[in-house]
Amino acid sequence: MTKSNGQPDTAHRAASLSARELASWLPPAGSADSDLIPELGTLVSRSRDLVRNHGVASGAFQTLTDNVVGTELRLAAQPDYKSLGKDKAWADEWSRHVESLWRSWAETTECDAAKSLTFAGLTSQVFRSSMLNGEALALPLWLKERRFSTVLQLVEPDRLSNPDGKPDSKSLRGGIEIDSYGAAKAYWIRKNHPGDYLLSAGSEKDWQRIPVETLFGRRRVLHIADLERSGQSRGKPLLTSIMPLFKMLDHYERSELQAAVVNAMIAAFIETPLDSEAIGEMFGGSVDDYIAARNEWKVRLQGGAIIPVFPGDKVSPFTPSRPNSGYGQFVENVLRHIGTGLNIPFELLMKDFSKTNYSSARAALMEAWRFFMGRRQWLATYWARPVYELWLEEAIGKGLIEAPGFYQNRAAWTRSKWIGPGRGWIDPVKEAEASRIRMENGLSTLEEECASQGLDWEEVLEQRAREQAKMKELGLSTPAMAATLKQDDKDESME
Predict the structure, then answer these.
(1) Helices (DSSP H) in 266-315: which residue ranges?
(2) Which end of the chain has fewer CB atoms at under 10 Å, N or C?
(3) Are strands 135-142 and 150-155 parallel, antiparallel or unpaired?
(4) What is the enclosing helix (H) or strand (E) of 464?
(5) C-alpha angle with apex 113: 143 to 407, nearest 5 degrees?
């Protein structure tokens, strides 16, 4: 767009206020919180409605959960033994002991304040909440009657809000008290869900102020949110950018389906040459009598029969225009756009690989796997590791684990890796061969290859050793022995 003198009105065309296609595009330029918090309730409720009622949205969330969390995130304790002045042998022994104790807590419902979920179940719920609501909230509690007093209580983020409906301010944003640097100081949590209509009147309006941590530094609130902008206090639902597309696609699919159903129910139209006045004269002024007479005119459809019609009527064939010939391609294009917004390839979003060859399927899944691994690392950093740190602190305090100088070297003691589900194989032979070549060329390790398939390398080696010992005991040849014998036979034949 140009001015009357021929010069452009802005240096950047995207900033033009006079271009016809841009003139009405004037989005607000607010802060991260002012753009999000007033609209968060609407976004969250619409996100939940889509996942409840749209199969593609529900399936996409399940696909993300299956690939990021899977059956569990497995702890692989990796203390920084060098900074602690220890050696690798000590670190391996310490890690095995810690992992064993961790499993005795995490694989039971004792870790859940409600005794409903194991740590794997809590992790899945936290991840789903972070996608559905944009954030997840957990309160680490201390219940002395449990074997490990550290337990977790998940809280729906709806309960995180300003007390008594106070407006947001410089120090209070969406139920979170912040300091001058933007760091959270405390969380205001309603004692009951605002949408729980089963509660008695008045009881749902009480708030509790929970500091971020105790005076000695133990976490009291875990707020898991993917903060996209500086100064952002609350999380945003994953479906936000593609929510309009999802809703319009839902409307379009319903309309097409309804049209197809209606068209399938109509076989033909019956035309009559009589108008309403003629019908009235014929039946003494009563159109109802005419309709009743037509209803009594019964025709039975039989193969090869000549079908009589009511006197004076004519049969007009009905040719429906549904299904729409462009329906499939249009829906596929919209779903590809939605898949891009979710960072899921179309083939994985729809579970349809019928039009995909090996190379394109592998490229699509590798791109998706980068996103899954990033989400897994994020979940481990802001959820799994803080929980592990809380549990480890208690285990050390009870004398179950030796960790001298824990508070001075907390980061070194709590260093860990979390193993999730494997990415699987498209062509097991090709990918197993590639794995072998990477290890032989020093580009990978057994630990990395096992982790990519959701396995612990030490457990794999220990199991293989047990299997080989049992095969030798029974007089069976192990795979390694079979390969050696085969190579010896080959060498002899060459000689």
Answers:
(1) 276-282, 287-295
(2) C
(3) antiparallel
(4) helix 457-473
(5) 55
Q: Residue 188: which residues within 8 A CB-CB, separation 6 or more?
A: 160, 161, 162, 163, 172, 175, 176, 177, 207, 208, 209, 210
Q: Is it the case that residue 305 has pLDDT exceeding 60?
A: no
Helix (H) or strand (E) holding 152: strand 150-155
Local confidence band at 284 (pLDDT 50, 70, 90 cut-offs): low
Position 285 pLDDT exceeds 90? no
Pairing state between β 207-211 and 222-225: unpaired
Average pLDDT over residues 456-461: 77
The model's pLDDT over 74-130, given as tens digits with 9 standing for 90+, comes to 999 999 999 999 998 999 899 999 999 999 999 999 999 999 999 999 999 999 999
**Pairwise CA distance, residues 187 & 176, whole Å:** 5
pTM score, two decimals?
0.79
Q: Are 444 and 452 in contact (CB under 8 A)?
A: no
In this structure, are residues 68 and 52 in contact, taking their beta carbons and an 8 Å threshold? no
Residues in the chain: 495
- Which of 142, 8, 123 is CA-nearest to residue 380? 123
* Distance (Å, whole) CA 423 – CA 366: 9
Q: How far apart are CA 176 and CA 168, in angstroms?
A: 9
Question: Rounded to an integer, what distance in angstroms lies between the CA atom of residue 68 and that of residue 61?
Answer: 11
Provide, rounded to the nearest whole percent, the portion of the chain with pLDDT above 90: 50
Tell me the pLDDT of the chain averaged across its residues: 84
Preceding amide of 211 cis, omega within 30: no
Environment class of 254 (CB within 10 Å of its CB; exposed 0-12, middle 13-18, buried 19+):
exposed
d(CA 81, CA 242): 46
DSSP label of 269: E
3-state DSSP: the chain helix, strand, coil percent, rounded to 5?
A: 50, 10, 40
**Predicted local confidence at residue 257, as pLDDT:** 82
DSSP 176-238: EEE-TTS-EEEEEEESS-TT-TTSPTTGGG-EEEEESB-TTS-B--EEEE---STT--S---T
Residues 315-331 have a mean pLDDT of: 71
C-alpha span between 297 and 266 (Å, rounded) = 19
Across the beta sheet with 176-178, the strand order is: 172-173, 176-178, 184-190, 207-211
Give the distance, in angstroms, between the CA of residue 58 and the centroid of all CA atoms in the same chain.
Answer: 9
